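Example 358.
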Amino acid sequence: MWPDHRLIDLFKTEFPIVLAPMAGVMDADLVIAAAQGGALGSLPCAMLSVEKAREQVHIIRQRVSAPISMNFFCHKAVAVDPAREANWKERLAPYYKEMGLDAASPVNAANRAPFDGAMCELVEELKPEIVSFHFGFPEAALLGRVKAAGCKVMSSATTVREAIWLEEHGADAIIAQGAEAGGHRGMFLTENISEQPSTFALVPQVVDAVKVPVVAAGGIADGRGIAAAFALGAAGVQIGTAYLRCPESKVIGPARMALAQARDDSTVITNVMTGRPARGIANRVMREVGPISADAPQFPHAATALAPLKAAAEKQGKVDFTNLWAGQAVRLGREMPAAELTRALAGAALARLSRLAG
Ligand SMILES: Cc1cc2nc3c(=O)[nH]c(=O)nc-3n(C[C@H](O)[C@H](O)[C@H](O)COP(=O)(O)O)c2cc1C
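Predicted structure in complex with flavin mononucleotide:
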């Protein structure tokens, strides 16, 4: 019934739908629910310790026998630049004052770490069926070990050049991430955000350029979007934003409200929250400091000084300093259990594809 079976065969899932990994707003619960609905569930590990990631995978394995994907960031770690950090703190000082916080207090918040030897050992131990990366691939030796453990690997490409690079470096599938997508741009061969093509333009060009199956991502939130992705030559889709309002996600109450109220023009690309460009619903700090600011320290250090502000504001029910990552199709999101949503998405896509074929 699906026009292309290559990803169903690769993932061994019922549907060619991937629940996007979404660090910070989901855990095993959403992975389990999406897998029960027939999707490939992805566990975001960028903000988890090795112990926590292991525990999460064990929880998933106890509840479902479906294949799973573990997801990691593989940016190049850079040391904190004290001068930039001080400048950033100064830029944020009025907010610290307003919230009654001491800018000199040390911050101890979880941040985003790149895939390393310890995480690689965990992958070798747990052997997830799929490992997906963001920001390219890890160094060849680590990637080789992941593949030798029997895991299929994929990563996001935001341009044709990145897609070709990923295929040449061993990708089993490529996620073509268009500009509409929520969260960080997976870009790794360019830093120019104005160059990123939209999903509609990117997917067919990536399909033409590589032999491996292509997963379309960005702005896909219902059966129409999934059918369009197949029409463009994709063999499956990766969907993030549309799952954020599921009861199994860990999105906090006020952020759920922002998601429910967002419209087509509510999101912007900002570097203020982490130091790397990402799309989210515009909030106070994105508007007042950015959305793009030359003052933001390099990824992921911009997030450090924002962490106390985020925590204090959230206590007051505010998301002024929370990274409300969401894509341009946020308005199409629905509040329903993730298994039900997955089946509804697949059913609507198949119905539309068969109508189009007739
Ligand atoms: C809240 C949120 C968090 C995200 N975190 C990650 C992540 O940890 N790893 C990753 O590879 N992609 C991440 N992404 C990007 C997704 O993989 C995917 O490209 C995007 O969700 C697709 O666009 P959509 O949100 O319009 O469906 C995130 C996206 C969102 C919305």
